[in-house]
Amino acid sequence: MAEQRFTSFVMFAEMRTGSNFLEASLNALPGVMCHGEVFNPHFIGKKDNLALFGIDLAQRDADPMAMLARMRAETDGLAGFRCFHDHDARVIAAVLADPACAKIILTRNPVESYVSLKIAQDTGQWRLTNAAKLKSAKVHFTPAEFEAHLRALQEFQITLLHALQTGGQTAFYIDYEDLNDTEVLNGLAAFLGVSGRLEAPDAKLKKQNPDEVVDKVLNPAEMEASLARLDRFNLARTPNFEPRRSPAIPSFVAAADAGLLYMPVKGGPEAAVRQWLGQIGKGGLITDFVQKSLRQWKRGAVPHRSFTVLRHPLARAHAGFCSHVLGDQGADLHRLLSKTYKIALPKPGTTVTPEEHHAAFLAFLRWLKLYLSGQTGQKIDPHFASQTTILQGFAQFQGPDLVLREEGLAGALPFLAAEVGCAAPAYATEDVAAPHPLAAIYDDALEDAARDAYQRDYMGYGFSRWRG
Fold this sequence. Notes:
19 helices; alpha/beta
C-alpha cells in the first residue's frame, strides 16, 4: 500500500502541452480525480461549464478558496485540477504555499506548443479521439508572437520554482514526450501516494499533428532565423538557469538614425511617439529587441538616451477602456466584466449617450481598483497595470534616462533629440478612439475613482487633476 503523502494535487501546465492527455491518465488511476481547469477565468472545469459543486462562476471568483475546499471535500479520493499561468492568481499562491497539495509540472518544447496552438486555432480542433477526423494545417510562424508565448512560459516557471524553493517543496516534472510512458505515469502515481497503477496510458485521446515542427509551418526559414537570435538557453532551459528580467524589452523601439530608445508604457501615446521617432534622420525604427540585441545597440549607439512617457492615469484608463473593453481587442474582457461582474457595458458597435459612456467607464474604474489589488484573480494586462509597476519592471534591466509626460512632449522631445545631436521632427499628438471624448464625460466621480485605482501613480509621480 503506497503512503498517502498528499490531500490534493494541482497540475501546472499550459495550452497544447498535453494536459488533457495527462488528466485522462490520472483519472484512470483508482482513487484519483482531476476536475479540469477549475479556475479558468471564463469557465469552470471544461469549456462552457459555468458551475461545479454547486458554485457558479461569480461565486467562485468572489471566494475561490471556497471552491477549492468544496472540490476537496466532495471528491472521493485525491482531488486535483489543471492550472495555467493566466488562471486565478489567488489560487496559484494558495496551492503553492500548501505542502499537502502535490505539484505536477507538465512541460513541452515551447516551439512545439506554440505551433500546436496555432494549428488548433486555425482548424478549431482542440482534442482528437478519432484519427480519421484529424484536421491538419500549416501555419505561419510569427516571431514576436512566439517570443511573447515563450516569455509567459518562462516567467511562470520561474514563479513556480521560486515558490517551491522558498517553501522547501518539490514537484513531479513530466514532459510532453513522457505522456505515453507507462513507467513514468506509474512513477507519478507513486509520487502522489496512491496505490493504483496503469496498465497503459489512456487510449482515447490521440496525438495531433505528429510531424516535425519544420513541416508544420509555412515559413520554416524565418522560424529558424528567429530562433537563432534568441539565447539558446531560453529554449532548452531548466528553471534553475532562467534569470529574472523585464518582460518589456521586446516592446522597446529605437530610431534607426539616432541614439534614442523609447521604452513604451502600454496605454500611453505609443503610436504618436513611434511616429515621431521614425521621422528622425532618414527615418526608420529598430524593433523586436531581446536582451542580447539591446546590449549590442547600446554599445554601438554612442551617445544614446532612453526615455519613456507617462500619461495621466485617468486618461490612460479611459484609452484602455475604449480599446481593450469596448474595442476590437476587448471581447474577452467585455464578456468577463459583463457576465461575472455584472457591469452594464454597451454591446460592441452600438451607439451610446455620454451619460451611458460615463456610467460604464465609472463602473470599470471601480472594478480596476479590485483588479489591481489582486482581488479578482485575473492576470494584470500591461495596458491597465500601474505605471509605477511598469517602470519598476524596466529597472530589472535598466531604467530610462528620462521619464517624460505626455502633455509636455512638444517641448521635451526637441530637448531629447538635441541630447544626441540630431534635429527633432514635429510631434503630432495622438487621438484616442472613443464613443465620447474624456472631456465630454469628465467629473469628480471619475477623477476620484481613478485616484483610488492608481494611488501609487498619483502619489509617486505627482499627478494632479486631469485638465484635458
